[in-house]
Amino acid sequence: MPKVYVAIIGAGGVGKSFISQLNSYALRSKKHTISTILISRSSKAILSRDYSGLNLATWESDIASSSVSVKPPSFPDETLKFLTSAPGPVILVDNTSSEAIAAEYPRFLSSGVHLVTPNKKGFSSSLDLFKAIYAASGAQNGGYVFHEATVGAGLPVLSTLKDLIDTGDEIVKIEGVFSGTMSYLFNSFAPLSPSGSEKPFSACVAEARELGYTEPDPRDDLNGLDVARKLTILARLSGLQVSEPTSFPIQSLIPKPLESATSAEEFLVGLAGFDGEIDKVKTAAESEGAVVRYVGSLDVGKGEVSVGLRNFDRGSAIAGLKGSDNIISFYTRRYGERAMIVQGAGAGAEVTAMGVLGDLIKVLERLK
Ligand SMILES: NC(=O)C1=CN([C@@H]2O[C@H](COP(=O)(O)OP(=O)(O)OC[C@H]3O[C@@H](n4cnc5c(N)ncnc54)[C@H](OP(=O)(O)O)[C@@H]3O)[C@@H](O)[C@H]2O)C=CC1
Ligand SMILES: N[C@@H](CC=O)C(=O)O
Ligand code: NA
Q1: In Gene Ontology terms, what is one molecular function of this protein (predicted)?
Q2: Which residue CA neighbors atom 23 of ligand 1 most closely?
Q3: Of 49, 67, 139, 185, which one has the greatest count of Cβ atoms within 10 A?
Q4: Predicted TM-score (pTM) of this structure
């Protein structure tokens, strides 16, 4: 069987689930032998220098006792050299949220390394980086790039958008709930059928973090930027030239006095002092017979994006969401008034890792 080499940077919530799913896949695969040659966390890494492959059953203890790292200055040059010296195709899996790693994607891709990632930074920061990634991937001998889990975690959002566009449909509007964290917060704190024992907003934020739904720093969810990044990715893939994820108005849920918090921990402690503020928003919606939810919308024709809180009728699909569910409605020329809808868990380690592994399998299927 042909041998394929996998290098994994980032082994937190998503990364751990990914390694476990990859291990099971490798044992089942009858088409490829998979050799994992690198696993890296923020300060420590393990490498299979002879390319024979790491032991995926013991990687956690192996990495804990390792004295190696792939931090700068060994990243990116030495890492790239190590990967491009492998005796077969290499797939880099970036399970971090690092902007610095994303900035190097064009170099890895133009050297023929394939890339799969749930990290939104490369595709939603500057438009130049987004274009450079796709240019490097499309160049002769460039690696493939897939990033399904950057929007809606494992839900088939980007593949659906690609199919719609490739088959000649026209995207009119994409809207819905794009954040697993925001969905969990509002479904828990302002549910459709309140029991009276709902926890305060700040306690729900702590729970969302515990459950692995938030970004490494939950302020990146609460300030609306995570949703803005997802809409930037959808807008760019729909052909709009969005220069930055901050190019349009974003409603932040970070209380003004907490904008200067110096750490996520300090922010979370301070947030409890502002539960009354968001309670008022919830009560105002209830007094209109509605529920409040955090949503995003992309109007492709008008080139407009909006991100923020909106009240929803209690009978609407958005009001009835549960857990960390996302709901993404594609309005297109062919589908007309009745949108094509993708719905389900939009955050969590296992469902995100599934999206990343699905992308890795897409690369395997394309290898000669
Ligand atoms: N959680 C979710 O539901 C979803 C997450 N995503 C995306 O998946 C990615 C990972 O999220 P998640 O697993 O939750 O985050 P975690 O914080 O749990 O994990 C991040 C991992 O990246 C490692 N890391 C950070 N910086 C570097 C670096 N410079 N070099 C090497 N390793 C580094 C961390 O190291 P260390 O272990 O040492 O801290 C950690 O292992 C993010 O981009 C996120 O946006 C996308 C969809 C859903
Ligand atoms: N923090 C994000 C994770 C997935 O992108 C979310 O809550 O949706
Ligand atoms: Na997805």
Answers
A1: NADP binding
A2: 10
A3: 185
A4: 0.98
